Amino acid sequence: MVFSAPAFLFFFLPIFLLITFCLRQELRNLFIFLASILFYFVDGGSLTLVLVASIALNYFIAIGIQRLDKINRVLLFIFGILVNLVPLLYYKYSVFFISVLHDVVPSFHAGGLKAGAIALPVGISFFTFHSLSYLIDVYQGKVAPEKSLVDFGMYMANFPQLIAGPIVRYSEVKDDIRHRPLTVDNIYAGMVRFVIGLGKKAILADNIGFVADKAFSLPPGGLTTAMAWLGILAYTLQIFFDFSGYSDMAIGIGRMMGFRFPENFNQPYCARNITEFWRRWHMTLSRWFRDYVYIPLGGNRKGSLRTFFNLLAVFFLCGLWHGAAYGFVIWGFYHGLLLVFERILKNTIKFEPSGIAGQLATFFLVMLGWVFFRAANLKAAAFFFSALAFHPVLDPDLIHYKVSLDKLFFIGLGMFFAFMRPEWISAVNISGRVPAKLAVVMQGVCSMVILVISCAMISTNGFNPFIYFRF
Amino acid sequence: MAKRLTLVLFFLLLFAPLAQMAFNITPLTPLVENRTLNPPAVFKSWDSLGSYFKDSIAWFNDHYGFRSLLIRLKTQLDYSVFKISDRTYVGKNGWLFIRDLLEEKKPFINILLKDHEEEIVAGAGYLADQLAKRGIKLIISIMPMKDVIYPQYLPDWVIRLPNSKRIDSLENRLKTIPNLVYLDVTPLLREIAKTQEVYHHTDFHWNDVAAFKVARILVNQLATAEGHSSPLWSHPLEIERRPFIGIESHFMPLFNPLQEDGLWVKKNWEDPPENLNSDYKKLFQKIYEQPHPELPQPELLGTIVVQADSFFESFIRSGFAKYFKKTYHSHWGMTNVQDIMDNLPTDCKYVYLEAVESNYDLLNFLAKQKPPKP
I need a surface site. Which of A210, A371, B359, B370 has the fewest CB within 10 A? Predict the structure, then answer.
């Protein structure tokens, strides 16, 4: 069940919030835990057991890590890491690894195992990272293990961030787990944030995504150079508004429940270099890799070559985390190489991309990287790049898609919002310039308008009239 | 206070669909979707609880309150602000065109013909020969879509096939096949269009008046071939206008649906009755039979078997069946066409295959007509 589905918006969410607000504080965590398991079960089915098992195992392992002595503590910690990684490796990566082996050693046969042969537990990448960070933090003594199984289960299964992030560390919410009063200000702020996220997804991402989907589905002979550029621009915007919109909705729902989830996006397309881009894009993932992979590998403290290796290793894993396919791995590697290149420029000629030129160059490079992310496979990516670079020979029997005015409007609107620098957003904050009450009223009206239009857009996604019924 | 009011409004909006489902607060006009909406989920067992939830969500997504209102709101915004619709081209002078037909179906047929035109022509020839051996005349017509006759009403930015369509080449070749009567509808409609409109503005079908004139041409052509000395079609054309909201308008549901003054044929003839007890009822959706078909009726044409789409229904509404002893009518997709061909009524004189140019079924059927392997 996705946040932008009618069943979530008009059934699950209002009933969930109503019950949450009416319940006594002592019962809220149990209710959130059970509701989150139900939320997961709707799409996950029997694979919910993977999540439940993960919750139970990590709960007991963390307690054991705290109580055991040195050697056993280390062994239990290693066991805990493995017990979290093994399901992820099996469900998400086994088929891919087998196909890679087959590509490298053609005589190796996968026994008919193909992509999609193993059902993937929804959100496994996210809840695995939650549990890994929890165990590592407990092992390092940064946090004490959660004593209540219900509270821990609620943290792990909390539906707003379970499926698509942000990656919330236990240390960031441990105080909220125990005590989070429901206030009108929190609920209101959460509501506004949720509606903004819904608008990003339903109004911007879905409309812009139509152009991207079209461009990437056109066959050779049907894709013009102009359409290829428009398509990748559209995808660049779509993925930002889709992902950040989802994060906003998660943060908003969390805030309505009293949680303060960490921010996940900070206008990444305003970044002036790739290093800054990764401080603004999927920030919770970047921080996770920084704290649990990059720094333990040595970070930038062991010389340039080791730093470059660490960066490439982190971004190789980052790419792989996003998906079990060559395209994601290459995308990760591509960003790793860009970061290495920036380091070299900085170290050798003291040059760091900046200003408008830096922003445009960064946007351009990031946009090109998204081709690997979006294309169905490497062959499709290669075809798309060739369409970007050269005027392809067009097939006279195929139609050549034209973008309609409304989609161009949404692309323009998307670019406006994507390039809005955070300081501009602060500058146009009206709350210092108009009476506070009027500011709230205006904010409320805008929120309701965005909500209604978003709901209208979402409803139309389910309007699928069938022409051949009466053809 | 403002925050509390906004929150109350927020929750009212979120709960409104449930309230509408429970109490039917405001009666709303349902949408025309031409599909069966997802039925309520049925709980079968605890093992299939996951499926039950999925089916429940599917049902809810089709039936939540104010769904039609929200869809109309979105469509209205698109139309009012951009003069656009996700499913329909909003053309000039109130003409609508279904996007899927122009963007997907017609290009698909174009590609299909690129690879399979020879098979289709060969299949049509083989079928015509086989039927001719049994004394049956094969008639084929491929109906043009509205954009063929009225391209000037398409929006300027619409996608068009860059080359002349391969369907034209196919039609020219079908016309040359012996034993096959190819009814080339496109030039007929272009001629009729000089004096009156031949398609609905808000529906992808041709109007009944155009169908009447084409049906009359076909009937008289067959009658001449059978040796009738004078035109067989006798009932005159009487036109009436009625408000009409076509399927293209339903595909872009607005608060005030686009409608037109449709052209219709005023009924001034007697249709032969439907035979509901025929042995062939399993194969055909409609069977029209003149009274006493066993008696010689020289003023009538022989039995006709029609495999067609909804365009043919305009023929029926024009009185086409009046001129045949029996009319067996099957709709593409409702029956296995090969079963029909293998079980033609013994008194069958004509087999008429009709389909619109974006219909894959006819071309697929013809391509499969081959001599049996030795």
Answer: B370
B67 to A460: CB separation less than 8 angstroms, yes or no: no
Q: Taking phi first (over 0 means left), then psi (-120 to 50 degrees means alpha), and beta for anything else, what does residue A350 get?
A: left
Which amino acid, A70? K
User: For residue B103, which residues of chain A lie inside 8 Å, CB to CB?
Assistant: 399, 401
A150-207 pLDDT per residue, tens: 999 999 999 999 888 899 999 999 999 988 888 999 999 999 999 999 999 999 999 9
Quote the ipTM score: 0.88
- Residue A452 to residue B66: CA distance in whole angstroms: 11
Q: Are B273 and B289 in contact (CB under 8 A)?
A: yes
Write the single-letter amino acid at B340: I
Question: pTM for this structure?
Answer: 0.89
A448 with B9: Cβ contact below 8 A:
yes
**How buried is A326 (Cβ within 10 angstroms: 0-12 exposed, 13-18 middle, 19+ buried)?**
middle
Which residue in this structure is represented by tokens 């007697």? B270
Token representation of residue A303? 């010389």
Cβ atoms of A151 and A177 within 8 Å: the answer is: yes
Find the CB nearest B57 among A1, A458, A464.
A1
DSSP assignment letter at A93: I
Do residues A444 and B5 make contact, with C-beta atoms less than 8 angstroms apart? yes
The residue among A390, A166, A374 whose CA lies nearest residue A263 is A166
Partnered with residue B181 across adjacent β-strands are B139
**Rounded to the nearest 5°, which phi and psi values hold at B371?**
-65, 145
